Amino acid sequence: MFGVHSQSGIPRIPLKPRIHIIGGSGSGKSYIATKLAQHFGVPTCDLDELFWDSANGRYGVRTDPAKRDRHLAEIVAQDGWIIEGVYYQWLTPSFDVADVIVALTPSIWVRHWRAVRRFILRKLGRLPSKRESFADLWRLLRWSHTYNAVNLVQARKFIAERGRQIVDCKTFADVLAATECLGKLQRKVH
Questions:
Q1: Residue 110's beta-bridge partner residues?
Q2: Quick one: DSSP state of residue 54?
Q3: How far apart are the C-alpha atoms of 88 and 11, rounded to whole Å?
Q4: Could you read off the pLDDT of 1-57 as tens digits, one per residue?
Q5: What is d(CA 63, CA 55) in angstroms, rounded to the nearest whole number?
Q6: For the chain, percent helix, then strand, then coil, each to nearest 5?
Q7: Are 78 and 96 a contacting pair, CB within 8 Å?
Q8: DSSP result, 119-140
Q9: d(CA 145, CA 107)
Q10: May I ask the CATH class of domain 18-189?
Q11: Which DSSP category does 4 fall into?
């Protein structure tokens, strides 16, 4: 189920794991990535930080694709990482070298609740703001409602075409079970 991959096709002995997490908005990607990063001692990458241009000052402005791809290449070149996001089409480099690819699939209602809660906490100043409006939240919820049926299906196909498998997880406990072998490999190497 798990492969330890390198771009050359030669198996690599992981000193630190490379884990890619995909899932819809509110699926728990950032939370789980943070917990896994603490567990494995690796950095995290929120793909929103690469995809959206936060320096622009406006919500919803995309980063130049060449700049985004350069940043992704720098991250993927590191020994270990946790990459998380909803995206898939421009992520061949990380999918190709990830030790495990996890799809977070909690119910749509759990995801919607989390997205609304996060929006409210940002508006109250308890989380860093991304300057989104109520209209932006509504568009996110509408898009998110179709994520599993459309985007995740396309992502699965995209990843399968690269000869890779996705491990479906609903909870953090599922993710820990799915990545347990990586921790064992890491301990054996040290």
A1: none
A2: G
A3: 23
A4: 344 444 555 555 557 899 999 999 999 999 999 999 998 999 999 998 889 888 877
A5: 9
A6: 50, 15, 35
A7: no
A8: HHHHHTTSS------HHHHHHH
A9: 10
A10: alpha beta
A11: -
